Amino acid sequence: MARAVFYHAGCPICVDAEQVVLEYLDKAKINPEIVHLGTERNRIEDAEKAGIKSVPALVIDQNVYHINYGASLEDVKNG
Amino acid sequence: MARAVFYHAGCPICVDAEQVVLEYLDKAKINPEIVHLGTERNRIEDAEKAGIKSVPALVIDQNVYHINYGASLEDVKNG
């Protein structure tokens, strides 16, 4: 199973993307951890190291997929 | 089943996103049509009407999910 993390910050665009991730990904192949960077602030560094520039974003193994644009990671860091 | 279309233009970022769409979406729930706007130019208008600003992008029902950024739709139109 691929290691996957979905990072968001609770924004409306984040919530919308999360619905798709939860609804349509094949749970037999991928079951992403959901991380709210607004509340789990100790994960911001992980997100940054993974190459995330904005949220929402889905990381699958080493690959980052930014899905639409809710907020920059800088905004999340400063918020 | 949700109606879904994955629009791309053959760019490296498009191909990478297409792999995720083909590999990880639950085919029992969603089975997107794959449209290459570089070759299927008669579909560009559909993409524009759907609200697509760049490729790669996945449309599920009426919702557009831009996945990373390969090229703007304007570039695709002018290419």
Automatic annotation (TrEMBL), chains A, B:
InterPro entries per record: Thioredoxin-like_fold, Thioredoxin-like_sf
Domain Thioredoxin-like fold: 7-66
Pfam families reported in the protein's UniProt record: Thioredoxin_3
PROSITE patterns in the record: GLUTAREDOXIN_2 (PS51354)
Domain of life: Bacteria
Protein name from the UniProt record: Thioredoxin-like protein
